[in-house]
Design brief:
Number of helices: 4
Radius of gyration: 13 Å
Number of strands: 4
Order of helices and strands: EHEHEHEH
Strand order of the largest sheet: 1-2-3-4
Strand content: 25-35%
Largest sheet: 4 strands, parallel
C-alpha cells in the first residue's frame, strides 16, 4: 500500500510481545507516517500492549501521520475505554475503511 504501512496483529499481546510490537511499529513508521494496525486476528490485548501503540501514535502525529486501528474487537475497545485511551486512537470497523481514511489524507492510491 502506497499511502500507509499495514501492521497485522495475530494472537494475544502480552508483556513478552512488547519489544517485537515496538520494533514492528517503528519499522512501519520509518516507511510511512501513516500506519494501519489490523486487529482482526488479534486475541487478548492487555492494557500493557497499549504503550507501544500510543508511542507509535504520538510519533506518527509528529511526522504528520497517524496510527489507525482497524477491526478492534469489543474486548480491545473495552481495554481502550478502561485505560481512558478510546479517544487517543482513530478506530475503524475494517481495514479498507482505515485505508480509505489514510489515503484520503495522503492523496495516495491503493495498489
Amino acid at each position: 500500500m502506497d499511502g500507509a504501512s499495514l501492521v497485522r496483529v495475530v494472537g494475544d499481546l502480552d508483556l513478552d510481545d512488547l519489544p517485537e510490537l515496538r520494533e514492528v511499529l517503528q519499522t512501519a513508521l520509518a516507511r510511512h507516517p501513516w500506519v494501519i494496525v489490523d486487529l482482526s486476528a488479534a486475541g487478548i490485548i492487555g492494557s500493557v500492549a497499549l504503550s507501544p501503540l500510543l508511542a507509535a501514535t504520538q510519533s506518527a502525529r509528529r511526522l504528520g501521520g497517524d496510527v489507525l486501528l482497524a477491526s478492534p474487537s469489543p474486548l480491545v475497545r473495552t481495554v481502550l475505554r478502561g485505560a481512558r485511551l478510546d479517544t487517543a486512537f482513530r478506530s475503524f470497523d475494517t481495514v479498507p475503511q482505515a485505508m480509505s481514511a489514510a489515503l484520503s489524507v495522503t492523496g495516495a492510491t491503493a495498489s
